[in-house]
Amino acid sequence: MRKMVIFIAAVAGLLSATGASAQNDRRDAAGPDIRREGRIYHARACRDAIGPGIARCFARFVSDASGKEVMREKASVTPNALPSGLGPTDLRSAYNIPATSSTRRTIAIVDAYGYPNAEADLANYRATYGLPPCTTANGCFRKVNQNGASSNYPAFNLGWAQETALDLDMASAMCPDCRILLVQANNSSLANLATAVNTAAALGASAISNSYGGSETGSTSYESAYNHAGIAITVSTGDSGFGVAFPATSNHVVAVGGTSLTRAGNARGWNESAWAGAGSGCSAVYPKPSWQTDTGCPRRSIADVSAVADPATGVAVYGPTSRNRAGWQVYGGTSASAPIIAAIYASQGAAGSSYPAQDLYSRTAYLFDIITGSNGTCGTYLCNAVTGYDGPTGLGTPNGLTAF
After folding, report:
1. How far apart (Å, rounded) are the C-alpha atoms in residues 9 and 13?
2. Helices and strands (H, E) in the chain, number of each type
3. Residue whose C-alpha is closest to residue 261's, from 192, 205, 301, 310
4. 3-state secondary structure 203-241
5. 0.90 cut: is pTM over it?
6. Over the chain (404 residues), what is each successive 10-residue block's mean pLDDT?
7. Which residues are CB-neighbours of 281 under 8 A, at least 6 positions away?
8. Please, which residues have CB within 8 angstroms of residue 116's CB and are 6 or more apart in sequence?
9. Continuous H helices in 81-143
10. Is 403 within 8 Å of 363 (Cβ atoms)?
11. Angle of helix 334-348 relative to helix 88-95, nearest 10 degrees?
12. CA distances from 360 to 163, 170, 364 (A)
């Protein structure tokens, strides 16, 4: 009887995974995808559709009801006021992360298209929060194209530039003294993004953040680019709720889900629950890694770990807007959580296992277990936060550096 129950659970997981993948492709059509959570509207930064061989970034910004950015400029009447949204001190407090790392390692940010003002906008963010300068001149910041050249950058794309601003700011927030390498793929094809990941690894990154995803269909052609032993490669699980995306389903990456994070009067000082938009589920393509032991999915389950992603409890970002000028906005999506986790890996500095996701499964005591919230109606832990492992939040969120 026990074997039959396990078999039925495995089949159910496979069927839900296949259905989730198809559903995810359908609802990830082109457009702003405006949503409302409480009194907060938020919309996609990248508004192209995803599909076989094509990825879309998972950044979302707080918007009005039409999908236009809501600017969050500092109040002029209070010169020292900080922008709306969670800042570096908030994030490090929530996850018990020190302001200085054990070594100045390099975080690589892989994104598509060009962002000419990346360094200048990053400087504004860091100066606002009192973080040390990170510039080309002082050797902290480096920008290259997908082949590693500091020239011939791709054409500008607003949505992907907004994604890049989010990634750079979150990396800075969590590891202010880490070096940052920005690798810009020619476009959002998985082939070009894979080339950029290989370039980041070749240029010495200890952690590589990827805040994008596409269909699993045909993805095996690109999976090897995410297989770099000893490098923490973090990948967003998605922004459309229950359903999977590649490369988060690769066995060689740390799949990063998302939470809602709010201040609280408890000992931690924060409450956290699964975010409704966090991607999760069961791969229809990739086998289950040896360190995953959940029984409701016969193949790779996502996520592994998580961090704040809900735009309604989002992070402050300085970057480009549709108003043809830079400004402060509040962002979310698992595009926020992936660079947060990458920066924590870089801040820790330890080599760990050949594939860092494995370590998380033996260090759950050093993670906050998220047990409330849901991202769908699958009826299982694959879309409902529960005690221990679950799909939307994985094993939980960081409680210091030890799990990484």
Report:
1. 6
2. 7, 19
3. 310
4. CCCCEEEECEEECCCCHHHCHHHHCCCCCEEEEECCCCC
5. yes
6. 36 39 52 93 93 95 95 62 94 95 87 98 97 97 98 97 98 97 98 98 97 97 96 97 97 97 97 98 97 96 98 98 93 98 88 83 97 97 98 98 94
7. 16, 17, 20, 21, 24, 242, 243, 244, 297, 301, 302, 378, 382, 383, 391
8. 153, 156
9. 88-95, 118-128
10. yes
11. 70
12. 27, 21, 6
Amino acid type, 171: A
Q: Who's near 33: CB < 8 A, 6+ residues apart?
A: 43, 44, 47, 240
Place of tokens 């490098």: 231
- Which single residue is written with the structure tokens 């409450």? 271
Q: Map tokens 């043809």 to a residue.
A: 324
**Beta carbons of 176 and 99 less than 8 angstroms apart:** yes
Vertex 278 angle, CA 293 and 255, to 5°: 45
**How many residues does the structure list for the chain?**
404
Structure-token pair, residue 361: 């499964």
Taking each helix axis as running N to C, give the angle between helix 158-174 and helix 334-348, from 0 to 180 degrees, rounded to the nearest 10. Answer: 40
Are 44 and 32 a contacting pair, CB within 8 Å? yes
In this structure, are residues 311 and 67 in contact, taking their beta carbons and an 8 Å threshold? no
